[in-house]
Specification:
143 residues; mainly alpha; 7 helices; 72% helix; elongated
Length: 143
């Protein structure tokens, strides 16, 4: 039996998340400005499939930033708890964690490409700021 029009597959969100994660790898490799077609080709997926799940290129980039923020949540929470008995120890701990994230989890490249996408773009600028930049900056202020 087929699905009624306008109704999504039960695994729609899981597939959307998986696609956003795969697209993030290619987006970080290719950099800001990759077209939706280029992203689809580099992922080995179809343009039609990406449009189905994200609508357009901006929708995909927004989903990438949202998923990146969601995945970073536990790490941002950890970074928000001061480690050490003194302010110096707490700052050293925070920046050590940030450096690990920068080097091992591509946080630096994520910000680089996010800034490149967001500068001057009324939709992607706020997505970058809200999902990537502000959470990174606010992590040390939650304590």
């Amino acid at each position: 039996m087929s699905r009624p029009n306008g109704r999504r597959n039960t695994d729609f969100e899981a597939k959307r998340v998986a696609l956003a994660r795969r697209a993030r790898v290619e987006w970080l490799r290719g950099g800001a400005g990759m077209s939706l077609r280029e992203l689809a080709e580099s992922m080995g997926d179809s343009l039609t499939n990406l449009r189905h799940y994200f609508g357009d290129r901006d929708g995909l980039i927004e989903a990438i930033t949202e998923e990146s923020h969601r995945e970073a949540g536990p790490y941002l929470s950890l970074a928000s708890v001061p480690q050490g008995a003194t302010a110096e120890e707490a700052l050293r701990s925070y920046f050590s964690m940030f450096l690990v994230a920068w080097e091992q989890f591509n946080v630096g490249r994520l910000h680089e490409v996010g800034i490149g996408e967001g500068l001057g773009d009324h939709r992607l600028g706020p997505a970058y700021v809200n999902h990537l930049l502000e959470p990174s900056l606010q992590a040390d202020r939650k304590s």
